[in-house]
Fold:
Amino acid sequence: MRWLYTLAWLVGLPFAFLYLLWRARRQPDYLRHWPERLGWLPLSEARPVIWLHAVSVGETRAAAPLIHALLARHPNHTLLLTHATPTGRASGRALFGDTISQAYLPYDLPWLARRFLSRARPVLGIVMETEVWPNLYAECARRDIPLFLVNARLSERSARGYRRFDRLARPAFASLSGVAAQSMADAERLHGLGARAITVCGNLKFDVAPPPDTAARAAELRQLFGERFVWLAASTRDGEEALLLDTLAQLDLAGLLLVIVPRHPQRFDAVARLIEARGHTCPRRSRGDVPAASDRVYLGDSMGEMAAYAQACDLAVIGGSLLPFGGQNPIEIAAAGKPLLLGPHTWNFETISHELVQCGGALRVQDAAALAQAVRELCTDAALRTGMGTAGTAFAHGHRGATQRILKILKTSQQ
Structure:
């Protein structure tokens, strides 16, 4: 089965490079460091290498507590952080600077995997969440490189997809030295696909600390917003902005300001055009605009400021949950003590979303009408907002500790 998979990759490789060219129209960084995607990264130093793969921005930020802990525990090692996207790479550079090395992970062809591992020479491999690359995993097993899947999550929808290719996926999962699952449900689904040595460690994202300048940035945003009631739409996906603007049109609440922060920076300009096409002016964070009293929408087109937006808002709706994208991470905003609204589509964070609703830190809304009603209720009920925020903070704080549990698993493998 892996030969068929390899053949499919070989046929698709020209299209992979065409995809890089297409993405480079808006993000020129897609054409930088492209030889690394063929395994041509710089040769590793004499020091032992710990390799950690975080595909993009979310995984890179989630890995931050673990990376800092590994750097502290292994000061004589080099930490190689690999990515698949330029935004993930930029996030890694912003978070860790020159304390790490960085590269793109090569495409999953056997000879590219061999080249990558020969040049990187890792003594330990760590893959964040659920990135499964059968050829790379097989080559790690052949070379006896311990490889761990950490912060692992697997929705039932994704599990069904892997089961359709069981003869390919099962050997890949079985080759792992260990798995640190986020929840018992994730562990059971991963075990059903062949993974062994699974430990439930919780979610690293609970251990992520806000950037040091978060309080200052939040104060700056709050000064921009003034005394208005700020409704944050965090990490929105394509199509959700239109739904939010439709909802805003149903609300006649005095002083309400909808702050939209799209998930992907390449959509910033398109979202600005949509806001203006709906008859709104569009003050933007990137230009330093101050929203006027008559403005009802503000575009948060900046990177790395979600923690500041979370602290500066009064209420937040989680993007990716209003339409079937699976939902974005609600932990950061819950930890900031702000009430949350979740749409019906939260399978990426299903357990966390369910528990947040159960503990009173979040409300679930099924459609635009319910969203409008929830915003109206929370805008006018300060006691309800305070209670939800307190519950969310307690929930977030109570789930910390995944970093140390994962470190114990990794330490055991090195003994």
Observations:
- The first strand starts at residue 49 and ends at 53.
- The chain has a mean pLDDT of 95.
- The chain has two domains: 2-203+400-414, 214-398.
